[in-house]
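# step 3/5: fold
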Amino acid sequence: MGAVKTPEKEVVDPKFGSVYDPNSETEPPADEDRTSLACRRRRFQIFLSLIEDLPRPIRILDVGGTEQFWRSMEFPGDRDGVWLTLLNLEREPVDDPRFISLAGNACDLSAYSDQSYDIVFSNSVIEHVGGADDQRAMADEIRRVGRRYFVQTPNFFFPVEPHFMIPGFQFLPRSMRCFLLTRFSLGAYGKVEDKSHAKNLVDEIQLLTGRRFKNLFPDAKIHRERWMGMTKSLIAVRG
């Protein structure tokens, strides 16, 4: 792909802004998938373990995230000395003074020095940035900028494609995937009338296998998030 991109807000909101904190008095949205919520709760516990032994203040760089995502987990509302920088193609509006929102490219973090952040966090972004070279660039930058990191991505071999919510969608020929997008409302995307736009959506998502993901993050421990014995997503953790 020509342009490097992080997910468009209207597409990824179901993933980025719907994490339920089990200790919250707020009930999860009725239309949320309970299995996904349970996975997110377990996943976030892995991230929390990365910061337990870190002295304050802690600087976190979230590549492709939003304030809404962190607020939905009630973090860092009850934690002092935690500062989060949100990096997206365009600046995201923020209200909490502990959040800094910046515009930038996930594949080029040259504005940041080596290990300038205590932790780099990225949730379901690396599969959106482009082809293999772009994914490699993003991974290398995360490894360089963060002393520790937490990077999650859906597993290519999980039966249900997580963006279009169709079993086996990722295994279909590209032409068939584009055809289905122009005929049906799939996942968060809705029916796509324009064929060229459908092709762009299909090409924008490049799911990763466990082997490829480990190759991108060779110094990380790879956690496999399982559902019914199958690997639902992959999490690279260093720290």
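# step 4/5: annotate
The CA atoms of residues 20 and 119 lie 22 Å apart.
# step 5/5: archive (pending)
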